């Protein structure tokens, strides 16, 4: 049933105010105009938004009228507008949704379904679409006569982390991607990372430089480890990539990009960071290629340790960077001007000299802008947090000011916990996006910090001399904590802080289909405890399992390699010796039933049997014996292929009650 109580949440919104100087605003406006000019015509976007509706709520496909409008309708910004549609016949649409792009239309639709019809849209693994509360076509509730206009307080809503492609999307087919892109549109995301298939582009670029297939096999990572091979943390681990994989991913990327574009999104494409195959050194002996240090291996095994970095100051850097973007444009067309590049992530420049750092930054930018004269560099600001002893104000300023204003956008990656904008005079005047990182390794514990999400982006935007140009979500993995992601997504359309307590009431009504005071009270507790918390607390998740659904299908041998990739990523992650486990073991752990039953339980039993023996025999704990045993067990499990249930069994309520009784009774 529709509930008019939802309406109180829509407050009178003040229009956005920009704090940038006029020449700086002009640079951002010019960028926005260039990106707007790349979008497809209104009819294409309107149909794309209709198709989202058709997939989400087919019964109501003709209950809504969609229209692309100009920014003038929203006072020069982006917005959506919901009004009652003037019916001329009985079968006409009831609700009109206008938006500056198809993304704003989809967001307006989502807003209407949430706040007028009590619906709830989530990832399938976190509840899926709950739309039973939407009244029948013909009975949809009207909005007030003057309609509702919701502006975006900042132009961009960014989505993804460079590792999400490995932790969450690695096995997806087009069907799953299509669902995700629908979800993105409904949440208002207009600046998504589009990293799929880049190895196919690299294959061409490096083949043109006479790098052989075996050399490329040694360069790329396996499917579940691509993100770290791309960043130069490792090479060949989990590989090689088959030609089939490379070709399939390229096809997938074309489908992804064309859908993003139809919806009026601006994809963020990869660019060259200096990460090259070792063999390049033989082809270009005079090129300045250095071997990077060890990254989380057990014993620096050169089979996967220590990748090669082409120095940005080398002329070959610009050549390869330009070739990569040209190859990308050749393959996909002129789809964006925004390129991600993280050359200095977990990899400090060789000197702290600001003028040298500035020349490196300029070279990275030159490599992009030679191929795309309007290129804008999007950089994760993680280094300013993780390597803050290197990146002091002079070094930060040197990097951030190495390119013209408006040509660099920084992601304040962990702003809900460690905002950099506050301590860096707003990135020394550089435009930045306020991002929530929230999740590490795709872990599924319940936690988050709702108060910070509800107020942080607003505080940042209205602060003196703000250079904030967007909000974003940079989680390492998805499919967890839907409440956190729903609130964060709303912040793209919230000009004022959200009162979390009230918001949670409406959230729980929408999520559980009706008003239940006990559930609201439970959410009050969660708000003050696990959802006022910056790290994961072990908490019993839903019984999920390793699943092969939504997977791409390949030959059995390749399937074996993929299964090893999938199992290794969620358990040991990286390499081992006989008695030294990976430094990254359990980083990407999941409380899935198959893992609990077949992996963690035997592993824990091994530990307890060694412990028991040492106590019984009054000997010190044999650390080395125990390690050898669990490492061998883990490696064997990683290479297994047995299937696990993918459907929950048993009575979740009864089990939960029994657990509460057992531990708190
Ligand atoms: C690649 O090999 C071809 C044929 O041997 C040669 O003409 C070309 O110069 C080589 N290119 C590079 C970059 O070494
Ligand atoms: C080569 O690169 C290294 C590391 O980036 C740098 O320290 C060195 O100055 C560079 N050498 C030349 C000749 O440019
Ligand atoms: C904002 O900018 C003005 C002019 O550059 C400066 O005087 C002022 O101190 C800045 N305020 C803050 C809080 O940084
Ligand atoms: C969350 O914790 C902070 C202190 O860390 C506290 O000030 C705040 O009131 C808490 N919020 C809730 C909803 O309990
Ligand atoms: C390997 O493990 C042993 C203990 O089992 C430890 O003494 C040694 O330092 C470890 N080696 C490395 C490279 O971590
Ligand atoms: C266990 O060993 C310690 C010394 O290693 C000894 O002091 C103690 O008496 C022993 N306990 C038993 C129950 O044998």
List keywords for this structure.
disordered N terminus, 10% strand, 665 residues, Four Helix Bundle (Hemerythrin (Met), subunit A), binds 2-acetamido-2-deoxy-beta-D-glucopyranose, single chain, alpha/beta, eight-stranded parallel beta sheet, Chitobiase, domain 2
Brief synopsis:
The chain is an alpha/beta fold.
Descriptive overview:
It is built from 23 helices and 19 strands. It has 665 residues and is α/β, with parallel strands linked by helices. Among the domains are: 7-151, 2-Layer Sandwich (Chitobiase, domain 2); 544-664, Up-down Bundle (Four Helix Bundle (Hemerythrin (Met), subunit A)), CATH 1.20.120. Strands 8-7-18-16-15-14-13-9 form an 8-stranded parallel β-sheet. It has a 4-stranded mixed β-sheet with strand order 1-3-2-6. Strands 10-12-11 form a 3-stranded antiparallel β-sheet, with no helix packed on it. Helix 2 runs parallel beside helix 3 and helix 5 (174-187) packs parallel to helix 9. The longest helix is centred in the last third of the chain and has 24 residues, at 593-616. It is globular and about 80 Å long. It starts with 21 loop residues before the first helix and ends with a helix. It binds 2-acetamido-2-deoxy-beta-D-glucopyranose (6 copies). The site of one 2-acetamido-2-deoxy-beta-D-glucopyranose has 7 residues, from helix 22. One 2-acetamido-2-deoxy-beta-D-glucopyranose binds at residues 451, 527-528, 532. Its EC number is 3.2.1.50.
């Amino acid at each position: 049933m529709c509930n008019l109580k939802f309406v109180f949440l829509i407050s009178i919104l003040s229009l956005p105010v920009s704090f940038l100087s006029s020449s700086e605003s002009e640079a951002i406006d010019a960028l926005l105009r260039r990106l707007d000019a790349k979008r497809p015509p209104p009819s294409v976007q309107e149909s794309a938004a209709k198709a989202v509706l058709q997939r989400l709520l087919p019964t109501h496909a003709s209950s809504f009228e969609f229209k692309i409008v100009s920014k003038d309708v929203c006072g020069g910004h982006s917005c959506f507008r919901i009004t009652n549609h003037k019916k001329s016949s009985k079968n006409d649409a009831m609700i009109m949704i206008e938006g500056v792009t198809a993304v704003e239309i989809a967001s307006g639709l989502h807003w209407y379904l949430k706040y007028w019809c009590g619906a709830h849209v989530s990832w399938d693994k976190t509840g899926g679409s709950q739309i039973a509360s939407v009244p029948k076509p013909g009975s949809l509730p009207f909005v007030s006569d003057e309609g509702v206009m919701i502006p975006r307080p900042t132009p961009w809503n960014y989505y993804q982390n460079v590792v999400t492609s490995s932790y969450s999307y690695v096995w997806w087919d087009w069907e799953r991607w299509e669902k995700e892109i629908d979800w993105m549109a409904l949440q208002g995301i207009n600046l998504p990372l589009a990293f799929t298939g880049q190895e196919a582009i690299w294959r061409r670029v490096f083949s043109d430089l006479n790098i052989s297939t075996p050399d490329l096999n040694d360069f790329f990572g396996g499917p579940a480890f691509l993100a770290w091979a791309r960043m130069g943390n490792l090479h060949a681990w989990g590989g090689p990539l088959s030609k089939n994989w490379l070709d399939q991913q390229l096809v997938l990327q074309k489908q992804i990009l064309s859908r993003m574009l139809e919806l009026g999104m601006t994809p963020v494409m990869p660019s060259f960071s200096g990460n090259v195959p070792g063999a390049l050194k033989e082809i270009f002996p005079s090129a300045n290629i250095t071997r990077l240090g060890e990254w989380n291996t057990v014993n620096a095994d050169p089979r996967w340790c220590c990748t090669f970095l082409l120095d940005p100051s080398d002329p070959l850097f610009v050549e390869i960077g330009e070739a990569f973007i040209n190859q990308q444009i050749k393959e996909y067309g002129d789809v964006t001007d925004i390129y991600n590049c993280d050359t200095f992530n977990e990899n400090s420049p060789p000197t702290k000299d600001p003028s040298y750092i500035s020349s490196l930054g300029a070279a990275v930018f030159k490599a992009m802008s030679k191929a795309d004269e309007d290129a804008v560099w999007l950089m994760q600001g993680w280094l300013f947090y993780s390597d803050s002893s290197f990146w002091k104000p002079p070094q930060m300023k040197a990097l951030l000011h190495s390119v013209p204003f408006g040509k660099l956008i920084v992601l304040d990656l962990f702003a809900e916990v460690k905002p950099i904008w506050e301590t860096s005079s707003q990135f020394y005047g550089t435009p930045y996006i306020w991002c929530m990182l929230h999740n590490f390794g795709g872990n599924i514990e319940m936690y988050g910090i709702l108060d910070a999400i509800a107020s942080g982006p607003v505080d940042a935007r209205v602060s003196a001399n703000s250079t904030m140009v967007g909000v974003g979500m940079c989680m390492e993995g998805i499919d967890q904590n839907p409440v956190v992601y729903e609130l964060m997504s709303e912040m793209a359309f919230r000009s004022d802080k959200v009162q979390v307590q009230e918001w949670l009431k409406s959230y729980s009504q929408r999520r559980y289909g009706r008003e239940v005071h006990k559930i609201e009270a439970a959410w009050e507790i969660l708000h003050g405890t696990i959802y006022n918390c910056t790290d994961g607390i072990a908490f019993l998740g839903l019984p999920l399992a390793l699943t092969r659904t939504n997977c791409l299908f390949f030959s059995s041998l390749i399937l074996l390699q993929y299964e090893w990739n999938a199992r290794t990523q969620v358990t040991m992650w990286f390499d081992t010796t006989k008695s030294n486990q990976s430094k990254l073991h359990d980083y990407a752990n999941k409380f899935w039933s198959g893992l609990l039953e077949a992996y963690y339980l035997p592993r824990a039993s091994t530990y307890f049997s060694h412990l028991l023996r040492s106590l019984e025999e009054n000997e010190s704990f044999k650390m080395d014996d125990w390690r050898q045993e669990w490492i061998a067990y883990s490696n064997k499990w990683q290479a297994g292929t047995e299937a696990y249930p993918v459907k929950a069994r048993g009575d979740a309520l009864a089990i939960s009650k029994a657990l509460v009784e057992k531990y708190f009774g």
